[in-house]
Amino acid sequence: MTADARSTVVLYSFRRCPYAIRARIALHVAGVAVEIREVALRDKPPSLRALSPKATLPVLQLPDGLVLDESLDILLWALQQHDPLAWLATLQDDRVRQWVWRNDENFKPLLDRYKYASRHPEMSQLQHRERALQAFVGPLEACLAAQPFVCGAQPGWADVAVFPFVRQFAMVEPAWFAQVAALAAVRRWLNFWCGSAWFLAVMGKRPVWADPERHSFGR
What is the pTM of this model? Predict the structure, then answer.
């Protein structure tokens, strides 16, 4: 491994993955110089598996050898290096933290069932959608009707952590999502984030990473 490689922050990522999106945005906003390695999900490189045997994305490798393989850990690490927009101002607010927990633990499994309803025939797609609405998107609408962002009056870390998953929800049935009156506040909030310079800056397409031949993992 060269001296330059040892000094490089490396992120293994997948462009459309909501976990990877929130990590990339935090790294971008924090101004962390990072080498992004786009991974093909069906052909994950050995270097990724060597760093994190579970091989889920994203995975961040720091120059000192530390590996972060949870997206929230990457998001928080990046903003703790540099937080120019004060996105961590609400980090200790339990009400804000609860939104991220509900997103990751409750909403994400329901979202997957809604997205891939044919794999979960115990309910119709409409029933899966209603469960996701009741568990998360509906309460989020009530929150955002009272304040512009999950974190309050200003954007924050929890908004970044949550919106990529709501974006996936909106993409399952875009015509329905675009017109349903009961989600006007969620739509406004999601449009803000999807049109933001932060999101657009990290969504460019990249070639798939392939490990160099004779790569010496672990050195």
Answer: 0.93
